[in-house]
Give the backbone structure.
Amino acid sequence: MEYFRKMKGISKSPPRVSIFEILWSWLGAFLGIGAVSYINFNLLESTDFLMIIGSFGASAVLIYGAVRSPLAQPRNLIGGHIISAIIGVTCYKLFPSELWLASSLAVATSIAAMHATKTLHPPGGATSLIAVIGSTKIHNLGYLYVLLPVGVGAIIMLVIALLINNIPKNRRYPEFW
């Protein structure tokens, strides 16, 4: 019974955030995702490169909407994505015909590596998974995937987070590097 009691939780839901916080989160996410998607759809459209991946949506939630979370800090954003991208590409290259194995190894190993390097960033798990289950365009990038879209895209989003999150007096980013 103790095992099931743990599933009840230990506290109440956190309080609502202010409309002010909601608007700044919205603006940051709009500008951050807008920048990487603009580059993707307007500047890289006719190339074999891409700039936007699904895990950036989850990163936007953290770096624009949960700015104080340890998981949203620059070290976690950049390190988590890059480490996970390297692991994801490696797993795909090792097991291209066993996607179930490559997928599970990529995500599990990414979590372990992010923990070990103090760069835990939940969207990193998705970044490693995208390297395995992504399109042919992603697979053709090989380790370039680590730099573009992952590294450059995360840096663009970080720069926008630094600029936008520090405009209001009662908002601050980052908490640590």
Summary: The helical segments are 2-5, 19-43, 55-65, 74-94, 99-116, 123-133, 136-141, 144-165. Residues 19-165 form one domain. The CA atoms of residues 21 and 170 lie 9 Å apart. The longest helix spans residues 19-43.
